[in-house]
Amino acid sequence: MTPKERIQAAMNLQPVDKIPVMCQFSIGHMLQQLKVSPVYFWFDQQTFAEGLIQLRDIYDFDGILISLHGHDPNWKQGIKEITKTNEAEVVEWKNGDKTICPFNDLPYYEFKNPESPPDISAFELSQLPAKLNYIPVSQNLHFKIDEEHKFDIIHYINEKCGDKYSIHGEITSPFDYLLDFLGHQEALISLIDYPGKCKTILSHFTKLIKNLAEEMCSAGVDAIKISSPFAGAGFISPEDYSEFVLPFESEIAHAIRNKGIHVYTHTCGAINDRLELMFDAGVSGIECLDPAPIGNVEIEDAVERIGSKGFIKGNIDSVNLLLNGSEEEILSELKKRIEIGKNKKGLILSTACSIAPAVKRENILLFRKAVEKWGQKKN
Amino acid sequence: MGTEEKLNTLAEFVIKGRHIDAKKTAQELLDENVTPQVILDEALMKGMAVVGEKFRNNEMFVPQVLVSARAMKLVMTILEPYFTASSISKKGKIIIGTVKGDIHDIGKNLVSIMLQGAGYDVVDLGTGCTAEKFYDEYEKNEANVVGMSALLTTTMVYMKTVIDYFKDKKAEVPLIIGGAPINQKYADEIGADGYAKNAYDAVILVDKILEKL
């Protein structure tokens, strides 16, 4: 099997020759491994794409997640100056804004004239964006999607290695767009105060995200990940999940599945109380499944409950195990998942959340080592 | 409705996040000459203790906690004038902030809410706080405890910088930490005086620390 076929088989819940391996990276981890300019890595498509390909080579993963897309080829046009400190590169834009790009983490912005989120009590439909031209990567951090170059990076990586490796795109949940649009706390309060208005906003973003996802399917991805980090029990109840997350993600998941492409949801933290609900959205799989202490998913229990519904990708603790654990501890935890994966079709060996920035390269190399040792079908 | 029943009703309004009803009831209690201290202790703190426990047990979630906090804060606005007149005693003063390089604040805000609900005076420094800022605010406010929050594994290391800075200044205030990637082992490694897994446990931790002092 090629790596691409292996991941495809796992997502189809079919037998594999060995357990597939594919983790998602934090920007900080990528930067520290690649030692590239953080400004170029964030804004420049070529630098980002080559970095993703290089990291796949380093770790021998079976696939590549393209976590950002829509890079603007003319991104340098608005720059006044780039300076460097010991901790970061700083872009000063002609409009007075600054983007601080640390060498070990996500960028953050300092806006000359920061905008306040809309007041939901006076909210009007016209305040919603007509086009989806940004990805809400983190609090106060958008990645701009260039309309003319939405999927150039997917074409580029596909051309380079898409025949051999599984290529995954990423979109963001409508719930995330809602939180970003209103401000996180105000949005969470609005679920109680203005549920109808929240649903209007969610419906609007769902329509835009669904269109984006359908276009992404045509760009040549093998699967699409829906990033939905705030939909776990650390934030909202299962009831709110059913009301404000599930119907909207479901609409997107069905649109992607109708195109014959796999789709999976990534929700961080404690999700044990909603594993079945997450599959009710019609996704092919779920990612993350953080174990304690960051989350509360026990892999054996999860496999028993949802193993027949779709594939599972995750459950290796990136912080407490990979960052702070010994080689023996890491191998032991990997072996445990591999043994489960050999009895369950549809397990992709992966970190729960993204590989944390400071995780050592040798600890991630243990994933492949463990699979070669214990994860082959003949064993 | 008797005073005790009204205090219980106010506590219930806080738990349910009914802020307008909570404010109205608190005003009625004040008008009936119930002291602000009794309103704080017997209704607000009682209600927020239930909120904290339910939050820890996954019976309440962040939106519900936020509306409870809104109700508590609205009642506090009508009790506020009595604070300056010193007719209300707080349990202690806590400095809290998210460390330098980190802009995430939901977890920190929840801890702040729970501490206020438990009767502490909280000075919230916001996000991206340097060691100097933590120290200066500690000195200025004569705080009893300093709390640090971090969501990122890249920023949690700055907590040690803050702890070392306080050591250099020979400040003897307890420094406590929390955040998604943090655990007790890490707290011990960097010399923190305490770690709390969630907002409710943060209140228990601060109570215990201040009991010992």
Please tell me about this protein's structure.
- The complex is a heterodimer of chains A (379) and B (213).
- With 379 residues, chain A is an alpha/beta fold.
- Chain A has one domain (3-75, 117-374): TIM Barrel, CATH 3.20.20.210.
- Chain A is built from 14 helices and 13 strands.
- Chain A has helices at residues 3-11, 27-34, 38-43, 45-59, 152-161, 174-182, 184-193, 195-218, 238-258, 275-280, 299-306, 318-323, 327-343, 361-374; strands at 63-66, 79-84, 88-93, 98-102, 108-110, 134-138, 141-144, 166-172, 223-227, 262-266, 285-288, 311-316, 347-351.
- In chain A, strands 1-8-9-10-11-12-13 form a seven-stranded parallel sheet. A four-stranded antiparallel sheet of chain A has the order 2-3-4-5. In chain A, strands 6-7 form a two-stranded antiparallel sheet.
- In chain A, helix 6 packs across helix 8 and helix 7 (184-193) packs across helix 8 (195-218).
- The two termini of chain A are 16 Å apart.
- Chain B has 213 residues and is an alpha/beta fold.
- Chain B has two domains: 3-84, Methyltransferase, Methionine Synthase (B12-binding Domains), Chain A, domain 1 (Orthogonal Bundle), CATH 1.10.1240.10; 93-212, Cobalamin-binding domain (Rossmann fold), CATH 3.40.50.280.
- Helices cover 59% and strands 10% of the residues of chain B.
- Chain B has helices at residues 3-16, 19-31, 36-56, 62-84, 106-117, 131-141, 158-168, 184-190, 199-212, and strands at 93-98, 121-124, 145-149, 175-178, 194-195.
- In chain B, strands 2-1-3-4-5 form a five-stranded parallel sheet, with helices on both faces.
- Classes of the chains: A alpha/beta (379), B alpha/beta (213).
